[in-house]
Design a protein that fits this description.
The protein folds into five domains: about 115-285, P-loop containing nucleotide triphosphate hydrolases (Rossmann fold, 3-Layer(aba) Sandwich), CATH 3.40.50; about 290-300 and about 310-470, P-loop containing nucleotide triphosphate hydrolases (Rossmann fold, 3-Layer(aba) Sandwich), CATH 3.40.50; about 535-650 and about 665-680 and about 715-735; about 740-980, no CATH class; about 1055-1085, no CATH class. Helices cover about 45% and strands about 15% of the residues. It is built from 37 helices and 35 strands. A seven-stranded parallel beta sheet has the order 3-4-2-5-6-1-7, with helices on both faces. Strands 28-27-26-25-31-30-29 form a seven-stranded mixed beta sheet. Strand 26 and strand 27 form a beta hairpin.
Length: about 1100
């Protein structure tokens, strides 16, 4: 209504101005007319008859005699002349608006009929009516994404779901189809993505992501709310696309009334058609206008000289060519396809310099990390004489159509995420695109006029490209997918009818991982914790954090951290070089790690909100993307509601009572929010023009208040939907956690993250900050990501000098404050990096969560998961620690079992155990035990375990009650429980001897018996230890019988002979090699 009034008053001003210029007074009443008696119409035509509108009540007397409104302040009395004049103006305005609508409708209909797909409209409708599955192979530019849903709606189908691989495509297509169906202010066409939706009960066409449709299947396996399902851009072969195809193939046998339409420009027709039992194919030609193709390969010598930074010269040369060849008055924008964000920002920086010099270009980046408002700017219109240069990832390759693009620069590269199952890490690598993707990119130039595509590679390179891209399901981990498959009731995920099945090892690895996380039983059925994990729209790691957070009543900080890990980081990476921003955000950094830094930033943002201060400026000064905090709030609420639905989080006892002033303020904000949203919807109708800013060579919206309006909407929506006082109270508690609560929070987070832990390299103390390396079980020599807190403060990872101790006979430094780094993921770009790391106590973390725990006879040496060795100085302390861990882990599992079984039941069954466990766990986390920790090398694994030949299996009393009294078939030792094997490790002296990487490696060594120094190999060291112990025993038994002693030693090792050293004045039994090495030792020492 507000927008309508603004338009009316604007029209009134122009109308009055027109009246003044023409000097014709507004007609107050129509003159007497002669009417034909036969036809009852005026006998003379007048222009006023073109207005085909009128008021229902044409009696002015009734209007004039009505009572005034009590609050009106119009002092002048109404007259018949004034009312007639105003009525005439309103009629002209309504007629003007109606003609605008008719004109737009006529243009829309003309544009739709000019699309190539229009000729195939009836054929598509007939094929969908006669078949369950139809393939629409429409070339780029044919209009399939926007027109096919409308065709089906006109054909009588009421509930249509159209999936898209990306959220931005859902939003833009929904807006476009709403515009074409004259339903911009209605809800007949809507979209639904992760954090927002416009869907209503009367929605007929819904654009949504593939993952969201799969989530809907978990609650409605038959998708009964839909009559037609359109899968757009199926050629991209995302992991959820392939799974959705398989689910629909199974569903079609149960729902004969369901229609499925597959759409793509570069679809593999034979593969998809045969998968759906030879489904019919409708081929639609594409490009509306011819596209000129030019190959501009980058010279090889230039490629060889390239540094790690991208060479932008070829792209600038193309921009210069466009400037010289085409006049600026000739419209046509440039779209550049690059592989990733780093390349985009490099080119944007260089292109902005060129644009500032020429004053003829505006540079706009486009990638998924940008906010929706920033992404929408690429659709705005550039000023006359200026071209847009859109630098994009492959987000612009499909679905998103940018009007006015005439030129394309195709780098031929794309960055894809591949998962390395051996090293348990993701690799983001640059690859050549497929020929199908190259054709998609070229087609973007021929949408609105003749275009040119510049390919920065040769035609021979194009011919050598793969025909289609590698499906995502063949290159990513399948943990979440396998969990979702099992939760949907599929009997055997190995036999699922994928269109192209993944490797069997990938599915097996995912099943093993889910069993290790406690989500699956041995028979591959869901456990109670697995059922809840399958319902949370996050991966297994984050889901397990949420469940454990509810178990120990630390849910709010866990919810915040889990929500933060579920969205893109709010810390803008490009601001790392800004000194002022780094100084402003420094107080947000946490010594505990990146998840706690994220928690600090979120909590302070809440506090600033609660104080009524401007969070937009606050975020900008600290290099933070405020949109991510709004996403965190939505995701946090979603997690909270899911936990409440499963009774893992109690409902609020009672809502807070609001005063009359608070209620009045709430209603005022709600009314203001609705008004702003109506204004925003109205602004969407208008084409937005960009304004040139010379300083930044960027374009901003012509409406200076647009950005602030969007922020006002988000801020008001936040204040209306959230209890700000409650959020402030909870965030304050999270900011004031005590050290014991922080340690407990770390353990809760590790319950989901483990075994993702890394140990620091022994030589980190001698390395610069950027070269600090860490090791995991599967991958060595990992670096901290530059965005991590510890990359700039590595001193936080060093042991304090006042808490270290060196014990004789023990390897490494003894301390009670050894720490590991727990991380969320490993990402390899140009180097392998640890992402989102935090410090965790080494002893407590490994003993609580390791799946394999092995010890020697005295428990002074413990190996966790076959790669971390923990050594204690005292056997009593070691055995007490192991006993405590066994009881803690048993109590933890019992509590989790009782907690899940007691849903909808009395909580008294587990409340006491819960209190005891929290108390004991806090004490264990605070324990001060001296120990050392190190990484076991690969060469040591062969000699790590005693094996089955050792017969001494006597148990300490503390383990007898828990032992299964079974011998381990490989390691040796006694199986205490599912994860602990006692006395399967060699003693310290044997293990120490085999700790060298190879048996022939020589190194310095001091014998602990005779305190002599040697340079020996592993074999020679063992030989000396044996002879040294024998010599010591002989001296004790017969101190005077040297000859017998020498003879006995010689008998034990005939290669040894008596050697009197003149330098040290001692007598030895050495081999010839040992004699030479001993002499060399004195020579080296003398030098």
């Amino acid at each position: 209504m507000t927008l309508l009034l603004k338009d009316f008053w604007s029209f009134l001003e122009k109308y009055l101005l027109f009246q003044q210029k023409t000097a014709k007074p507004s007609r107050t009443e129509r003159p007497p007319e002669s009417v034909s008696e036969h036809l009852k119409i005026p006998s003379v035509y007048k222009k006023s008859y073109k207005i085909n509108l009128d008021f229902n009540n044409r009696n002015l007397t009734d209007f004039l005699t009505k009572k005034r409104l009590p609050d009106e302040d119009f002092k002048e009395s109404f007259t018949e002349e004034l009312v007639l004049e105003f009525k005439n103006i309103i009629l002209h305005y309504l007629d003007f608006v109606q003609k605008q609508k008719f004109s737009r409708l006529k243009k829309l209909q003309r544009d739709k009929q000019n699309l190539p797909i229009w000729k195939y409209k009836q054929n598509i409708i007939n094929q969908v009516r006669d078949n369950q599955v139809v393939l629409v192979a429409g070339d780029t530019g044919c209009g399939k994404s926007t027109q096919v849903p409308q065709y089906l709606l006109e054909a009588g189908y009421k509930n249509i779901a159209c999936t898209q691989p990306r959220r931005i495509a859902c939003i833009s297509l929904s807006k476009r189809v709403s515009y074409e169906t004259l339903n911009e202010n209605g809800s007949e066409v809507a979209y639904q993505i992760r954090f927002e939706k416009t869907k209503r009960h009367d929605t007929k066409i819904l654009f949504l992501t593939e993952g969201l449709l799969l989530r809907q299947m978990s609650s409605d396996i038959y998708l009964s709310m839909y009559d037609v399902i359109l899968l757009d851009e199926v050629h991209e072969r995302h992991i959820f696309t392939d799974f959705l195809l398989g689910m629909l193939k199974c569903l079609l046998t149960q729902r004969k009334d369901l229609k499925v339409v597959l759409m793509s420009a570069t679809i593999n027709i034979g593969l998809f058609s045969s998968y759906f039992d030879n489904a019919p194919v409708v081929k639609v030609p594409g490009c509306l206008f011819p596209i000129q193709l030019e190959y501009h390969p980058i010279p090889i010598d230039t490629l060889d000289k390239q540094s790690s930074k991208m060479d932008c010269a070829p792209y600038l040369r193309v921009m210069q060519t466009i400037d010289h060849k085409f006049p600026h008055s000739e419209r046509g924008d440039l779209l550049i396809f690059l592989s990733g964000m780093t390349e985009i920002m490099s080119l944007v920086d260089v292109a902005q310099v060129y644009a500032q010099q020429t004053k003829s270009w505006i540079i706009l980046p486009l990638h998924s990390a940008l906010s929706i408002e920033q992404q929408d700017k690429v659709f705005d219109i550039a000023p006359d004489g200026v071209r847009k240069c859109i630098v994009s990832t492959n987000i612009s390759e499909t679905s998103v159509t940018i009007d006015g693009v005439r030129f394309i620069i195709d780098s031929g590269k794309v960055k894809e995420m591949h998962y390395d199952n051996k090293f348990k890490m993701k690799r983001l690598k640059e690859f050549w695109i497929s020929r199908a993707s190259a054709e998609q990119r070229k087609g973007r130039a021929g949408r609105t006029g003749p275009g040119i595509c510049y390919r920065l590679y040769s035609e021979a390179d194009y011919e050598a490209l793969e025909k289609y891209s590698t499906p995502e399901i063949l290159r990513v981990p399948l943990d979440s997918l396998v969990l979702q498959m099992i939760s949907l009731g599929l009997p055997d995920c190995r036999r699922f009818p994928f269109i192209e099945p993944p490797e069997g090892s990938s599915i097996e690895n995912s099943l093993i991982y889910l069993q290790e996380q406690g989500a699956l039983k041995e028979d591959e059925k869901l456990t109670p914790i697995g059922e809840m994990l399958s319902k949370l729209p996050v991966d297994v790691v984050v889901g397990k954090m949420l469940i454990m957070g509810s178990l120990f009543h630390m849910i709010d900080p866990v919810l915040s951290i889990a929500a933060g890990l579920g969205v893109q980081t709010p810390f803008v990476s490009k601001t790392r070089t800004d000194v002022e921003i780094e100084a402003a955000r420094k107080h947000l950094f946490s010594d505990h790690g990146d998840p706690f830094t994220l928690l600090n930033a979120f909590n302070e943002w809440i506090q600033v909100k609660a104080k009524g201060e401007g969070t937009k400026k606050w975020s900008k000064r600290r290099g933070l993307e405020e949109q991510r905090f709004y996403e965190m709030i939505k995701l946090k609420n979603q997690f909270s509601n899911l936990l409440k639905d499963h009774q893992l989080l109690p409902e609020e006892s009672s809502e807070r009572f609001y005063t009359s002033e608070e209620r009045k303020d709430w209603y005022r904000k709600r009314k203001q929010l609705h008004q702003l949203k109506r204004e925003e919807r109205g602004n969407m109708k208008k084409r937005k023009f960009l304004k040139f800013e010379e300083e930044a060579t960027m374009l901003a919206s012509s409406d200076e208040n647009e950005s602030s309006t969007v922020q006002d909407i988000k801020d008001l929506e936040f204040r209306v939907t959230q209890d700000l006082n409650q959020l402030q109270e909870r965030s304050y508690k999270s900011q004031t956690l005590k050290i014991r609560q922080i340690n407990l929070l770390k353990i809760i987070l590790c319950s989901g993250l483990y075994p993702k832990v890394a140990i620091a390299d022994d030589c980190n103390n001698y390395k610069p900050d950027s070269e600090q390396v860490f090791h995991t079980k599967n991958k060595s020599f990992l670096l901290l990501h530059p965005t991590s807190v510890f990359s700039s403060q590595p001193d936080l990872l060093q042991l304090p000098d006042n808490d270290t101790k060196v014990c004789s006979g023990q390897k490494g430094v003894m301390s009670s404050k050894h720490e590991l780094l727990s991380f969320v993921s490993i990402l390899e770009t140009n180097k392998p990096y640890l992402m989102n790391v935090m410090r965790v106590p080494a002893l407590q973390t490994t003993l609580l969560f390791c799946s394999s725990l092995d010890s020697n006879s005295q428990c002074t040496r413990i190996v966790c998961d076959g790669w971390l060795e923990i050594s204690f100085a005292e056997a009593d302390v070691a055995q007490h620690i192991i006993s405590s861990v066994l009881h803690l882990r048993a109590a933890w599992n019992n509590l989790l079992k009782l907690r899940l079984e007691a849903i909808n039941k009395d909580a008294s069954s587990y409340r006491k155990l819960e209190q005891v466990l929290v108390k004991k766990l806090t004490e264990f986390l605070s324990s001060k035990v001296l120990y050392s920790i190190r990484r076991i090398l690969t060469a040591e694994l062969e000699h790590l375990y005693v094996g089955t030949q050792v017969a001494d299996y006597s148990l300490p009393s503390i383990f007898k009650s828990q032992a299964e009294h079974q011998l381990h078939p490989v390691k040796g030792g006694v199986i205490i429980n599912s994860f602990f094997v006692y006395n399967c490790l060699h003693d310290s002296n044997v293990a120490s001897a085999w700790s060298q990487q190879t048996s022939h490696l020589q190194c310095h060594w001091t014998c602990p018996k005779c305190e002599r120094k040697f340079i020996v190999s592993v074999i020679e060291r063992l030989q000396h230890e044996s002879s040294c112990e024998f010599a010591e025993s002989s001296r004790d038994n017969d101190n005077n019988d040297d000859d017998d002693d020498d003879e006995s030693v010689s008998h034990k090792n005939p290669l040894k002979q008596k050697f009197d050293c003149s330098d040290c004045g001692k007598t030895f039994q050495f081999t010839a090699i040992e004699i030479l090495k001993h002499k060399r030792f004195h020579l080296v020492g003398a030098e």
